[in-house]
Design goal:
single chain, 204 residues, mainly alpha, 0% strand, globular
Amino acid sequence: MDLQHNDFDRILFFEHARKTAEATHAKNPSDADNLTRWAGALLELSQFQNVQESKIMIQDAISKLEEVLVLKPKKHDALWCLGNAHTSHAFLTPDAEEAKEYFDTAAEYFKKAVAEEPGNDLYRKSLEVSAKAPELHVEIHRHGFGQQVMGAADGPSTSSGTMAAKKKKSSDLKYDIFGWIILAVGIVAWVGFGKSNVPPPPQL
């Protein structure tokens, strides 16, 4: 997969964040904030994988966020992240009915996040956008972009010129769909790690 410099920096940052959260979890499994940051890092990293690997990472993030809710059932940022995770999983699911179940679950989590923190514009915007997600999903898969979303370049290229154009279109579409999710998750993770005083990743 071709990665721009900024993408590479983000991968390094969130891979470091993932490893740091994993190490922290080994020492303190009941740290709900750390579990939330770990899940956020997984959601970020999932966008750079092929579809199957993305789904595995998203599912891992979901399981960690569900652990958070066992510890703190009303933790609004975990509820919101779960909404994002289920939305991401839905877009990677070609079957519209199956995807709708993920979208419905996502909407429920967004509603709970808004209920816990009604003044949060990001949560309200996520809930608002989630209502349009199933329609967007249908359009994406109708036009055959579904398998290209989230870096699903599983097969070898045939015509480099045509594939380059498709890759550009796929990349643009990917960021259109997941931009609001990824940006928001990134903000949460950066702020969370800033508060945790995590040391910077080693310079290569």
